[in-house]
């Protein structure tokens, strides 16, 4: 059996520049997820810090918001690696559900609230819309991950990436 070198050489379609361009939209989405998750942490943690400073009760809703923001920020960094992203679509759905619950919780409290010059209520109304943006970003990456998983997972072998399965 002769060794056929052409079968094992990389084709021009898998060059490094082509693969970088194909990963760019995912990296942009993950970067936006990270930025908006950190924004959520900042918006909700202000009230937790203020309550702690004044030795008052800090509501668990705000703790949940900071926890979801932290989960979103860490997850966006970990899932920015494209191989994990293809297999991490289930986690994307979990984070999407967490942000959906967060949006629903605070939207019910603040969407119809009239700020009347109150900066805290205005900030929380803005936080609700940031929650919605986070929810939509996680939904988009979950759908992207599902498409990549179900349509493109069988093309190359898992271990080396060279063999067609």
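-> sequence recovered:
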């Amino acid at each position: 059996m002769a060794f056929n070198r052409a079968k094992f050489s990389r084709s021009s379609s898998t060059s490094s520049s082509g693969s970088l361009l194909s990963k760019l939209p995912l990296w942009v989405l993950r970067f936006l997820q990270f930025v908006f998750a950190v924004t959520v942490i900042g918006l909700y943690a202000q009230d937790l810090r203020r309550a702690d400073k004044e030795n008052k009760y800090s509501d668990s809703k705000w703790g949940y918001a900071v926890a979801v923001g932290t989960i979103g920020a860490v997850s966006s960094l970990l899932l920015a690696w494209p191989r994990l992203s293809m297999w991490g679509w289930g986690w994307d759905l979990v984070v999407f559900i967490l942000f959906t619950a967060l949006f629903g919780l605070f939207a019910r409290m603040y969407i119809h609230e009239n700020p009347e010059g109150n900066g805290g209520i205005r900030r929380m109304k803005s936080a609700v819309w940031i929650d919605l943006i986070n929810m939509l970003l996680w939904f988009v990456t979950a759908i992207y991950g599902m498409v990549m998983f179900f349509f493109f997972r069988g093309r190359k072998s898992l271990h080396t990436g060279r063999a067609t399965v």
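Residues 27 and 81 are 8 Å apart (CA to CA).
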